[in-house]
Amino acid sequence: MKVVPGSRKARILEASPEALRPALGFGIDVVRKGRIVGRNAAASVTRRALPLIDRVSPSSGRKLRESGWLWQPGFGYKQVNRLYDGSVDPYRFESNPYEVGKYAYTLQLLSGRRYGRALEIGAAEGVFTEQLAPLCESVVAIDVAASAVERARERLAPLGNVEVLQAAIPGQWPDGRFDLIVASDVLYLFPKEVLGGVAAELGDRLLPGGTLIAVHFLGDFGQSMGGDEVHELLVEKTGLEKEREETVEGVGPAGAGYTVVILRKPQSGAAG
Fold first, then answer.
1. Are 238 and 202 in contact (CB under 8 A)?
2. 7 vs 5: CA distance, rounded Å
3. What is the set of domains in the chain, with CATH numbers?
4. Which secondary structure element, helix H or strand E, spans residue 13, and what is its range?
5. Whole-angstrom Cα distance, residue 23 to residue 194?
6. What is the pLDDT of residue 12?
7. How far apart are CA 49 and CA 43, in angstroms?
8. Global pTM?
9. Residues 188-201 pLDDT 10s
10. Most buried residue among 40, 104, 190, 194 by CB atoms closer than 10 A?
11. Can you list the alpha helix ranges (DSSP code H) found in 206-264?
């Protein structure tokens, strides 16, 4: 029975008699998985119905395509909005040693090079964006949560080279192409069949010679895919060259660690 320290499940089990914990933990997992399966199924049916909805009511189809819940039904849109509405920095990106260390290592991997236009997916309140911006000519930072976007705009306004947008891909991709795309602990929030299309689009959105860096937690919290599975799919679907891949062990909840992959788009005319 996997229990992430500090999670709601952990708090419930700690408050319960020890003899009941295995059965209670199993029940919590069943309910959680059931909810995720139900939300994924409803979203999947709606996505398949979009062509028909487009014909019957183009305005309704357009609104659905721009709805975050349709693409991130299990996690993401509703859950993240609720978290950021309820508190500032709910994931403790500024103070959690795991997040601080992960950001520092990501920057270390990106250092030594100047980037042009960058895209950060799932920027939250802009904690990492603030550290990334000095490496780039400009940054487009996107997130689905309105409260997070508002706070990110306040944080990043003094920098002058960052644009923060409330957007839910794949329905709301920012315009243009990028020299760098950063996706940290966000891509496994998409159902697998959606992520395949997102991955292909990520490859198309990179300029020749551009870099995609993806960083994902390796623990299980009910997401659609594990971090290592996400990175395998990125390699398969983006058509990019794998430059580096590694795992950082013994950090984060339950010491599950995280995985990093850096993919590069060949320069125009290069082989592959």
1. yes
2. 6
3. 8-65 (no CATH), 97-264 (3.40.50.150)
4. helix 8-14
5. 34
6. 67
7. 10
8. 0.79
9. 988 888 899 999 99
10. 190
11. 227-238
